[in-house]
C-alpha cells in the first residue's frame, strides 16, 4: 500500500436531535473514520442507522453536536467567515437521493447546473458560462440541447445525471453521494454507477457513497463502514469486509442480501443479529483487529475476533 | 400441473391527452397451483398494470383491457361485473401492495382491517373473525397479537406493517396472491424475513404467488418461474434456473449484467444504454432494438415471435432463428451458463398463445 493522504477526518462526530421538550435522538453517536484522497468510501446500514445524517453533518447541512470534521487539515465546523465558507463549499459537493425532488422544477437545466458557477464567479462571461454547462452535460452523457429544458422533461436516470453535473460544476474534490441510485431502475443504476466511476478516474474525485444496497456498495467502494444505531460497528477494505466479516451485525447484514443466483439462494442461510450477545458490563470501543480492519467490540470480543481472523 | 390462471393475449391501454398509451401489448402466461411466478422488468414495462388488470383495479375509465382473456380456474374474469369481481377480490385473489406505509387505513384499528374481509367473504361472526385474526397475526410473526389488534397502523414499524398487509391478504386463504414489490420499501434484513415468511406460508396454504419485482436477487430467492417484461411484452419466460443460468434474450442478459454480484472481482458492470421506449408510439419491430448491442437488421422491421427453447423456456428474439448469426452472450452472462442444454433441437417458433 502506498502512503495515502487523508482528505477527510471524522473524529468522534456526534449529531443529536431534540425530540419534543425532553427527548433526544442520538442519530450519530461518536463515529470516527478517515477518507483518503481518491478513494470511494462506502457507508452502509439500515434505514435510521444514521448514515445519511453522517453525510449531511460532514457537509454542514447540520451543525454537529460534538466532534470534528477535518477536511484538508481544516475543521469544517469551525469555518465561520463567508469567504472561507464559500471556499469550502466549492471543494465539497453532494448528490442527493431523489432526483425528482432535488432539482428545482422552475429552473431550466442551464440555470440549475450554472448556479454554483454563478455563486463562485467561475465563468468569465455569458459565453463561458454556457460553454461550461454544455461541456458538463456532455461529460455526464447528456446533450447540449438539454440545457434549455426543464427537469420534468427528463427520466430519473437523466435527472440524476443532471444532479451529478451540478455537483461537478464547481470542480469539487470531494463528493458525498447519498443513495444516488436507489430511486433508479436496475439497468439505469449501472449507467450512473459506471459514470461515477469514470468521473472519479478522470478528475481524481473522492467519494463518500451512502447506500443500503450492499452489493452495489461493494462494487463501487474501496473501503466500507457499517453503521448500526448511530455507531460504526465495522470498517474495512471492501474485499476484507465481505470475506471476513467479524461483527455479528455485519454478518447478519451480509447474509440477508439476495443474489441473482438461484443455487446460491437455495443454500443461503440467514444469520440473525441479537444485540444482547454483547457483554454490557464491558465497554465497547472501536478497535483495530488487523491493519485497516476495525470492529466495535469489548476487550473479550477483541481477542475472540483476533483468533477468528488468525484461524482463517 | 393444474393451471390456476391463464392469461391469453392480454392488451391494456390508457387514454391520455397525449394519445393512447399501450402499456401491455399482448401478454400470455399461466400460473399453476402452488407455484411462484416472478415478473421482472423496468418501471413502465407493464408488470404492475398486468396484475392490476387481473384484479380489475385499472383506473377507470381511461385504463381499459383492449383485448384478451384472463382465465381464472377456467372462467374469464376480465369480463366480470364490478359486483361479481368484489366476490373474488380479497377472497380468491388478493394483493400485497408495495408501500406498507400507504396501503393501510390510518384511521382503522389493525384488527378491524383484517377482520373486514373475513366477515364479508367468509360470513364469520365477529368473535370468530377475531380469533382467526389473532391466528393470522401469529402466522405472520407479530408477537403479542391480542393487544396489537387494538393498535393503529402508525404504531407499527414498516416491516410490521407489511406483515399486517400480508395478514390481510391471506385472511381468506386466497388461491392466488399477487405481491407487487412487497419488499422494495424495506431494509434488507426485514426483506429477508418477509420473503421467508411468504415462502413459509405458501408451503402451508399451497396458494400461487405472482411476485412483481425489479430486484433479481429477490427473484432468485422466491421464484419457481420467471417472466421478463419489456415495453409491454413478455420477452422471455422460463424456470428460474433457465432464466438465470441460460438466458437467451439480450434484455435478460442486460439485466443480469447490470447487477453486481458479491464476487465479481474486476468485472465491469454492463449498463443497458438508453431508456425504455415511449409507449404512446411503440417502435416498429423489436422494441428493445435501439438499446440492444446485438440487434439484427430484421429487428428494426419485424417484431420477433416467441421461440421455444425448451418445454418451459421461451424467448422473443430473432437471435434464436435458424438463420441468425451465432451470437455469444456477454462475458458477465457467460460466467453464469451452467451447461443447461438447449434440449438439442434448434429453437422453433412457438405456436400462437403457447407459453
From TrEMBL, chain A:
For biological process, the GO terms are: peptide transport; transmembrane transport
Pfam families to which the protein is assigned, alphabetical: ABC_tran (PF00005), oligo_HPY (PF08352)
Coiled-coil intervals in this record? none
Report domain ABC transporter positions. Answer: 8-254
Task: Please provide, alphabetically and separated by semicolons, the GO molecular function terms listed in this UniProt record.
Answer: ATP binding; ATP hydrolysis activity
| InterPro entries hit by this protein | AAA+_ATPase, ABC_transp_ATP-bind, ABC_transporter-like_ATP-bd, ABC_transporter-like_CS, Oligopep_ABC_C, P-loop_NTPase
Lineage, top-rank taxon, reads Bacteria
Where is the signal peptide, in residue numbers?
none
Q: What keywords are annotated for this sequence in UniProt? A: ATP-binding, Nucleotide-binding, Transport
Q: Which PROSITE patterns match?
A: ABC_TRANSPORTER_1 (PS00211), ABC_TRANSPORTER_2 (PS50893)
**So what family is this one in?**
Belongs to the ABC transporter superfamily.
Can you name this protein? ATP-binding cassette domain-containing protein
From TrEMBL, chain B:
Give positions of region: Disordered.
Answer: 324-355
Instruction: Kindly report the protein's main subcellular placement as a broad class.
Output: membrane
Q: Which Gene3D superfamilies match?
A: P-loop containing nucleotide triphosphate hydrolases (3.40.50.300)
- Keyword line: ATP-binding, Cell membrane, Membrane, Nucleotide-binding, Transport
Its record classes its membrane topology as: Peripheral membrane protein
Q: Which GO terms describe its cellular component?
A: plasma membrane
Q: Which lineage?
A: Bacteria, Bacillati, Bacillota, Bacilli, Bacillales
> Which residue spans traverse the membrane?
none
Q: Which GO terms describe its molecular function?
A: ATP binding; ATP hydrolysis activity
Stated family = Belongs to the ABC transporter superfamily.
Q: Does the keyword Zinc-finger apply?
A: no
Q: Could you state one GO biological process linked to this protein?
A: peptide transport
Would the keyword Secreted turn up in this protein's UniProt record? no
> InterPro entries under this entry?
AAA+_ATPase, ABC_Ni/Peptide_Import, ABC_transporter-like_ATP-bd, ABC_transporter-like_CS, Oligopep_ABC_C, P-loop_NTPase
Q: Give every ABC transporter domain span.
A: 7-256
Q: What NCBIfam families does the database record attribute to this sequence?
A: oligo_HPY
Q: What is this protein called?
A: ATP-binding cassette domain-containing protein
| Top-rank taxon, per record | Bacteria
